[in-house]
């Protein structure tokens, strides 16, 4: 039995890290550029930023799933940091991720429990499991962050 596909999307890139990416229907387009830290101009977004944005939104949706399941309506925030490392095995690069979860007026132990559950449920977390180092931790909620 095959798994049911519920959504499909695509992106087109020209110019690699110094180019442009867009949806096939051109409803979403953005400039891609090498970060200044890597010798580029930094005049656009980069793949690591896009990955961080997508992963953080997907992870937060998984967190909301468990908050709803437990009737918790406290405000929450997810800060997902992507690191690009030199890979000594092939001279290329590899990623690691830090996920920090804060929830307003909730004990740190409860936040950590929900954060860990979300990590097992999030499709990005499932996709990266065993492939990149990902750490998940509870942090204080910062108003207006």
Automatic annotation (TrEMBL):
**InterPro entries from the entry?**
KH_dom-like_a/b, OHR, OsmC/Ohr_fam, OsmC/Ohrsf
TM region(s), chain numbering: none
Q: Which GO terms describe its biological process?
A: response to oxidative stress
Q: Pfam families from the entry?
A: OsmC (PF02566)
Q: Which superkingdom does the taxonomy of this entry point to?
A: Bacteria
Q: Which PANTHER family match?
A: ORGANIC HYDROPEROXIDE RESISTANCE PROTEIN-LIKE
The record's family statement is: Belongs to the OsmC/Ohr family.
- Protein name per UniProt: Peroxiredoxin, Ohr subfamily
User: Organism, per UniProt?
Assistant: Alkalibacterium gilvum
Q: Which taxonomic lineage does the organism of this UniProt entry have?
A: Bacteria, Bacillati, Bacillota, Bacilli, Lactobacillales
């Amino acid at each position: 039995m095959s798994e049911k596909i519920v959504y499909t999307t695509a992106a087109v890139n020209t110019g690699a890290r110094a180019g442009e990416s867009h949806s096939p229907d051109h409803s979403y387009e953005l400039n891609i550029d090498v970060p200044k830290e890597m010798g580029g101009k930094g005049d656009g977004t980069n793949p690591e930023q896009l990955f961080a944005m997508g992963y953080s939104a997907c992870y937060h949706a998984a967190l909301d799933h468990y908050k709803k399941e437990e009737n918790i309506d406290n405000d929450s925030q997810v800060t997902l940091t992507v690191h690009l490392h030199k890979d000594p095995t092939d001279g290329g690069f590899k990623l690691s991720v830090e996920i920090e979860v804060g929830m307003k007026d909730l004990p740190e132990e409860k936040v950590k429990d929900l954060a860990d559950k979300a990590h097992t449920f999030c499709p990005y977390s499932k996709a990266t499991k065993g492939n990149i180092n990902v750490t998940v931790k509870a942090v204080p909620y910062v108003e207006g962050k």
